[in-house]
């Protein structure tokens, strides 16, 4: 098979959990093929570069094989190549670090994980080196 529908291909190579979610991403304009926005029925062929916008970053994948049947996770590397630039991963890391600080209004209470991330972010490293047990002489 030399061509495959974009929604089926993204589901088959495990970019999205379901084909419905993949088709919806196409409908919302989050998928582009070689720089052009793609609808769910658009076909991909080997050599195409697909950009998937999952805020805050844009992943890029190069199609090595066009498939429509889902494959095991170990075989995914034969079907596509991840060509996402390192600066996109830096954006992802920065969003993880600052994710708590610019929390959207009405997003609810912070989770325990959010609290731990914030504490890890705001606690200075040099505080670990101090021993706060002092010997006071009582008179």
From TrEMBL:
Transmembrane segments: none annotated. Keywords: DNA-binding, RNA-binding, Stress response. The keyword RNA-binding applies. It comes from Bacteroides stercorirosoris. GO terms for biological process: cellular response to heat. One of its GO terms (molecular function) is single-stranded RNA binding. Residues 4-67 form the RNA-binding S4 domain. It comes from the Bacteria. This is Heat shock protein Hsp15. Belongs to the HSP15 family. InterPro entries: HSP15 (IPR025708), S4_RNA-bd (IPR002942), S4_RNA-bd_sf (IPR036986). The keyword RNA-binding applies.
């Amino acid at each position: 098979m030399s061509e495959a529908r974009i929604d089926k291909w993204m589901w088959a190579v495990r970019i999205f959990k379901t084909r419905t979610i993949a088709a919806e991403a196409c409908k919302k304009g989050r998928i582009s093929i070689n720089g052009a926005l793609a609808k769910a029925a658009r076909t991909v062929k080997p050599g195409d570069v697909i950009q998937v916008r999952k805020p805050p970053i844009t992943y890029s994948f190069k199609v090595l094989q066009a498939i429509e049947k889902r494959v095991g996770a170990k075989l995914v590397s034969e079907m596509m190549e991840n060509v996402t630039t390192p600066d996109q991963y830096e954006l992802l890391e920065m969003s993880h670090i600052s994710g708590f600080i610019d929390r959207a209004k009405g997003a609810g209470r912070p989770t325990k994980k959010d609290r731990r991330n914030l504490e890890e972010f705001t606690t200075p490293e040099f505080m670990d080196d101090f021993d706060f047990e002092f010997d006071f002489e009582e008179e």
